Structure to design on (927 residues):
């Protein structure tokens, strides 16, 4: 019997106040973004953990273009045999994701034929392709990051906005153009390894220990921490609230040299936000409260994170795991293993899945944010972030002079309330909606969202009372055992609450959470598999991690004493908080 | 009519020696080391069957018996086994077996040589080929009277309940069943076990799979001990894995009882590794030689004698061709094929 989570409470024509669906100006690839309809109950929808705040109007370009258009385009391009990419339904500003099914048997047959030709060729060219894409992205980013959005006339800003929308879509086109083939290849290699009798826990080690742009950023933060300590800034950091650090340090003559280095760091790594594709968030370079807060925590921790040591250990573990696996294979099997490993090392999904965030996920939306906010400001908006509450077609009409700010002012206020209302509602929203399937076809849904059998089982369990549950299970994502006090977080904005040695419990992590991994003893996530961010980073930081638990955030409470066994994929609640 | 054949006199596929002993003779001819042995032929069985009027006994015990009547089958088994165990053995047969046994003693310089008395069913026997281990084996018998007794009990095992039921169900005649008996020197085993010249799980022929325990192989063959399990690459003869089993039971010679019995493995030996790398190398050599002799993947029972020295050959006590396994295609790396197989669920088959 199939489990169905009703969609009724989200069936609505209501979007943000004053907004008419169908007027989004978004190009549709195969399936447009919409609100929920009753017939959507036949499909399976997952509340997308990548966007814990949902989307403000200015940010709707992302689910429309970045998710719908770009995944559907990539799913056709490779193609994926049985998935047409991802579809989106909005519940208020929140994103539920599903795969767009490919149902025609003829189409599936043709797609199988095509991928057999395209995938090997794509892998063959991956290094060159990614180098090309990185330089393309860098050129685009440099173009926008070199622009001043102050004092430009409306026509300039309108043009910059259109360019920013085009760049954003191109960046996400690249994202899924690369992600699908790399992910599919890795999953294929994983299956081949299991077929060769290799232990599942070993396989993810084969691709670890390669340096990414995100790790490079974290290393930069640690170098700044070390520098702050040697320059005697520890006390200033300790005595100042994170939100005041920027002002205080810039006013402190003793910090002059350090601030110059920090600014240089921001020029390289500061064009990023504390979350994926979310225009609400202020980039580090505009407000460095987040990196300064991180440095402050690192300083208070006293000790240093030995990046070189952790990486050397990850590399040693990788080489040892590869040698051990090869040692158990026959000559013929070793040829197969070596060929698969070579393909996956050259087109390394685990590495790319971190690295690309630096160019795309944390960054590609920033030009749209700058242009949108600048247009609103130029038109006389009261608050600096009023532009966040304007949709793409409205912004175009405003910028073209067809509409004035006075006509939208009241709507902006209503939409602010609407956003806040749904933000508060988010923690209690169902993690899944619709018909819980036996399995999913889209590799992004299965491997990144972690919608596997264990996840579905946990979802069914959620229907019952979970307060008595003391033992949870999920995907063994990073080996080792750790005990500690749980810290349950629903969003990155709470990251600063984590105390060193605590165990992070959350829906999922994103690249902006990475600095926290140097502090925590272990990580537990509701979603994800061995390839999600939390798994990959836990392995790099060498802490235990269990993903795909499904009911961790609804069962574990902050203050509970828990034990995480990342080798077995289990979590035990040892002692409930008072 | 020949009651006795020595191993070296058995031609390939000699129907009077049964499948097991005729293959052992082939191994010996191929230069592999096997125990000293002789065979009591199917002709001898026919002589004994006639002497105890087996056809009448079969008619009497099996008339109207149903293949599913387990109580009736058990009763029939007991009576038929008694019939053969108490059969009057023709003097010529007693004399021949006694002579052959004494010859074996002389060859091995052991006046009271313990032997293994093994059923050697005819290669056409559907019961034997339907499932191994149907027929009796007696280990550690010594002296001609004990050998003769074991021989009769082996023949009695032709009429075990499962064999009777199988023949009734398949419409086979019980009278057509015939059996030779192998009498072979019981090699004093330091270690023994089984080996396959293919991976019995995947059917692939890229590895040799070995199971090993201390002492005689009986406890392992009967499945009462968790043996050491090891795998060796065929192409490069590399040891791919060696898992030491927790060996709780051992088959050992009980000299007072005159038979091999199962006893608790001494504590100190339970978690000990059975085979050295050199022994594994020697073993893989004979397994692959047996396969070449058979012209098919081999399933062997092997023994490393107590007196084994590095460089000595490993003794084979039994060999069977593995004919059922169809090797799957060799593994290969094909990114698209692997992705299609594993990355996208719900693919049309």
């Amino acid at each position: 019997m199939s489990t169905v989570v009703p969609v009724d409470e989200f069936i609505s024509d209501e979007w943000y106040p004053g907004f008419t669906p169908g007027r989004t100006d978004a190009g549709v690839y195969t399936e447009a973004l919409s609100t929920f309809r009753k017939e959507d109950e036949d499909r399976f929808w997952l509340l997308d953990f990548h966007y814990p705040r949902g989307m403000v109007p200015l940010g709707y370009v992302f689910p429309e273009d970045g998710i719908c258009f770009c995944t559907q385009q990539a799913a056709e391009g490779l193609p994926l045999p049985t998935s047409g990419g991802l579809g989106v339904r909005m519940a208020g500003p929140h994103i539920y994701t599903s795969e767009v099914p490919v149902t025609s048997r003829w189409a599936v047959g043709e797609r199988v034929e095509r991928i057999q030709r395209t995938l090997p060729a794509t892998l063959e060219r991956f290094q060159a392709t990614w180098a090309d894409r990185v330089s393309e992205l860098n050129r685009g980013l440099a173009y926008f990051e070199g622009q001043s959005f102050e004092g430009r006339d409306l026509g300039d800003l309108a043009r910059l906005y259109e360019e920013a929308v085009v760049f954003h879509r191109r960046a996400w086109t690249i994202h899924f153009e690369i992600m699908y083939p790399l992910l599919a290849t890795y999953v294929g290699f994983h299956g081949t390894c299991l077929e060769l009798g290799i232990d599942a826990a070993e396989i993810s080690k084969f691709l670890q220990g390669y340096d990414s742009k995100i790790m490079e950023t974290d290393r930069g933060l640690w170098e700044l921490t070390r520098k702050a300590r040697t320059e005697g800034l520890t006390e200033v950091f300790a005595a100042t609230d994170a939100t005041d650090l920027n002002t205080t340090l810039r006013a402190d003559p003793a910090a002059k040299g350090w601030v110059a280095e920090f600014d240089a760091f921001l020029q390289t790594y500061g064009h990023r936000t504390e979350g994926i594709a979310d225009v609400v968030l202020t980039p580090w370079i505009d407000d460095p409260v987040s990196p300064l807060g991180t440095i402050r925590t690192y300083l208070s921790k006293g000790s240093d994170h030995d990046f070189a040591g952790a990486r050397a250990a990850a590399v040693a573990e990788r080489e040892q795991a590869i040698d051990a696996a090869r040692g158990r294979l026959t000559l013929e099997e070793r040829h197969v293993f070596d060929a698969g490993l070579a393909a996956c090392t050259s087109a390394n999904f685990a590495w790319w899945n971190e690295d690309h965030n630096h160019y795309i996920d944390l960054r590609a939306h920033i030009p749209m944010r700058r242009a949108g906010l600048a247009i609103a400001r130029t038109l006389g908006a009261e608050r600096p972030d009023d532009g966040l509450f304007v949709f793409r077609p409205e912004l175009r009409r405003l910028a073209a002079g067809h509409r004035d700010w006075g006509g939208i002012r009241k709507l902006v206020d209503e939409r602010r309330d609407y956003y806040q209302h749904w933000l508060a509602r988010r923690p209690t929203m169902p993690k899944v909606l619709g018909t819980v399937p036996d399995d999913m076809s889209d590799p992004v849904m299965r491997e990144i969202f972690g919608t596997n059998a264990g996840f579905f089982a946990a979802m069914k369990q959620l229907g019952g009372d979970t307060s008595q549950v003391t033992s949870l299970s999920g995907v063994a994502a990073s080996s080792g055992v750790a005990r500690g006090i749980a810290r349950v977080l629903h969003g990155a904005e709470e990251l600063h609450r984590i105390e060193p040695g605590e165990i992070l419990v959350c829906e999922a992590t994103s690249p902006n959470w990475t600095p926290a991994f140097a502090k925590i003893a272990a990580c537990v996530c509701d979603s994800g598999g061995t390839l999600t961010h939390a798994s990959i980073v836990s392995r790099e930081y060498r802490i235990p991690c269990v993903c795909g638990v499904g009911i961790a955030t609804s069962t574990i409470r902050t203050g509970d004493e828990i034990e995480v066994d990342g080798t077995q994929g289990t979590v035990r609640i040892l002692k409930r908080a008072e | 009519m020949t009651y006795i054949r020595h191993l070296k006199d058995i031609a390939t596929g000699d129907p009077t020696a049964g499948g097991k002993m005729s293959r052992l003779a082939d191994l010996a001819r191929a230069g592999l080391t096997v125990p000293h042995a002789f065979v009591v032929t199917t002709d001898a069985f026919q002589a004994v069957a006639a002497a105890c009027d087996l056809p009448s006994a079969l008619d009497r015990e099996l008339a109207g018996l149903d293949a599913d009547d387990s109580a009736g089958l058990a009763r029939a088994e007991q009576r038929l086994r008694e019939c053969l165990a108490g059969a009057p053995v023709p003097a010529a047969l007693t004399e021949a077996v006694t002579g052959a046994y004494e010859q074996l003693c002389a060859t091995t310089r052991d006046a009271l040589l313990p032997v293994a008395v093994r059923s050697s069913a005819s290669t056409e026997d559907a019961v034997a080929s339907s499932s191994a281990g149907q027929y009796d084996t007696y280990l550690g018998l010594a002296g001609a009277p004990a050998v003769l007794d074991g021989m009769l009990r082996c023949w009695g095992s032709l009429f075990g309940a499962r064999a009777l039921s199988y023949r009734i169900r398949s419409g086979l005649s019980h009278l057509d069943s015939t059996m030779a008996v192998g009498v072979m020197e019981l090699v004093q085993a330091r270690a023994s076990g089984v080996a396959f010249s293919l991976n019995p799980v995947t059917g692939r022929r890229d590895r040799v799979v070995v199971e090993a325990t201390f002492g005689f192989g009986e406890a392992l063959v009967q499945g009462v001990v968790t043996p050491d399990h090891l795998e060796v690459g065929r192409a490069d003869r590399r040891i791919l894995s060696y898992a030491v089993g927790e060996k709780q039971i051992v088959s050992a010679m009980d000299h007072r009882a005159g038979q091999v019995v199962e006893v608790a493995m001494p504590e100190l030996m339970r978690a000990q590794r059975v085979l050295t790398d050199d022994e594994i190398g020697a073993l893989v050599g004979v397994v692959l030689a047996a396969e070449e002799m058979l012209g098919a993947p081999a399933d062997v029972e092997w023994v490393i004698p107590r007196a084994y020295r590095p460089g000595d050959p490993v003794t084979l006590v039994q060999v069977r061709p593995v004919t059922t396994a169809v090797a799957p295609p060799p593994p290969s790396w094909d990114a698209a094929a692997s992705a299609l197989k594993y990355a996208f669920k719900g693919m049309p088959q």
